[in-house]
Amino acid sequence: MIFLDAAATTPVRREAIEAMFPYLTNQFGNPSSHHELGELAATALERAREQCAEVLGCHAEELTFTSGGTEADNLALKGIALARRAADPSLNRVLISAIEHPAIVESADYLRRVHGFTVETVPVDSTGLVDPAVFAGMLADSAPGGVAVASIMYANNEVGTVQDIPALAAAAADAGVPLHSDAVQAAGWLSLDVGSLRVTAMSISGHKVGAPKGVGLLFLKSGTLCEPLVHGGGQERGTRSGTENVAFAVALATALRLAEAGRDDAVERVTALREAYIGQVLTGVPSSRLTGHGTRRLPNVASFVFPGTSGESVLLELERRGIVCSSGSACAAGSDEPSAVLSAMGVERTVAQTALRFSFGAGVTAAELDTAAAELAAAVARMQRLG
Ligand code: PLP
């Protein structure tokens, strides 16, 4: 099998498994316990937090371990919106980009339905990019109320478009609005340095960088108001109660550091392979079109539409041929709805239903991609023949 679905998930790195093993076995303490076993766990948790902080260029106290990217997104959007409006009732607007992951879209919808916030969508162009000037205009808009929080993802999970986060964060800072960015797909491929990105909050997920599923991180710049969503024993400095998953935090720190250490080499190698693959696909399937931005895109994502086919049937045909990828609507599994991301980019409904995403791990090889491009051309030709 050739696995070209690394944006969905990655295998856990051996080093991460080895690093977390002791905290699942002989050093199984609860970090809140006041005995040696507890203190060993607390020390490991804080070391993991410091190691993650080094990768993000922030203070360890600015990081909260979560159960993944979804929880980090929920905590950022709901937590900041609710806390800021509690402090200033005029802050009742929430801005999110038109191509956010469901973790942000549904959190915003919850804030609208249950808490009466007004949710406004920041548009994207046909490549999936938000124009910082348009965003600045919306922030300055005279609509009643101020903006409690804005969220614009760093890199899109379906088409790989990378936003100009520093420019968007500068616009938000000028308007005095905290900007959250979902960096789940960026991790391992783009710089996560929060000082240069200038974001107020940022989400990371472990299983996209070689840590297990079910662990993530939220960066919250110190001084940011954020209402906890999970109440209890006050762990994670009160931001997220519940006994911490020490083993997974250790695995996340290990995987994140290794991904960061290998990032420059991986980006150079995989970008070249991606460009070659895009060329092969566009030549091999003349009716295909690349989706997303030509250059501002994740090194490891190549996404296309294949008008005249059905994405789902090409996906199945490819799997039969040993190639695993994802259709545009992977996040809305079981739904026939075309991707909201492609719709926001102006791709017509019938064409959006033909989308496929190929996403590569750092170890992908030229031979694998040559095979995938040839099988893809054959699979599309077969599906077109079958009508
Ligand atoms: N945000 C983006 C952009 C993602 O791609 C994903 C997962 O695919 C998530 C959030 C959710 O992360 P998790 O699976 O850790 O909950």
Characteristics:
alpha/beta, seven-stranded mixed beta sheet, four-stranded antiparallel beta sheet, 13 strands, binds pyridoxal-5'-phosphate
**Poorly predicted runs:** none
Strand line-up in the sheet with most strands? 2-8-7-6-5-3-4
Oligomer: single chain
Strand fraction equals 5-15%
* Tally of DSSP helical segments: 13
* Distance linking N and C termini: 27 Å
Report the count of strand segments: 13
**Mean pLDDT over all positions:** 96
Which ions, cofactors or small ligands are bound in this entry? Answer: pyridoxal-5'-phosphate
Helical content (DSSP H or I, runs of 4+): 40-55%
Cα-based radius of gyration, to the nearest Å: 21 Å
| Helix and strand element order | EHHEHEHEHEHEHEEHHEEHEEHHEH
Characterize the overall form. globular
Structural class of the secondary elements?
A: alpha/beta
Strand count, sense and barrel status of the largest sheet are: 7 strands, mixed
In a nutshell, what does this entry contain?
With 387 residues, this protein is of the alpha/beta class.
Provide structural commentary.
The chain has 387 residues and is α/β, with parallel strands linked by helices. 43% of the residues lie in helices and 14% in strands. The protein has 13 helices and 13 strands. It has a seven-stranded mixed β-sheet, with helices on both faces. A four-stranded antiparallel β-sheet has the order 9-10-13-12, with helices on one face. A two-stranded parallel ribbon has the order 1-11. Helix 7 links the parallel strand 6 and strand 7. Helix 5 (132-140) packs parallel to helix 6. It binds pyridoxal-5'-phosphate (PLP). Residues 68-70, 73, 101, 103, 153, 157, 182, 184-185, 205, 207, 216 line the site of pyridoxal-5'-phosphate. Pyridoxal-5'-phosphate binds next to helix 3.
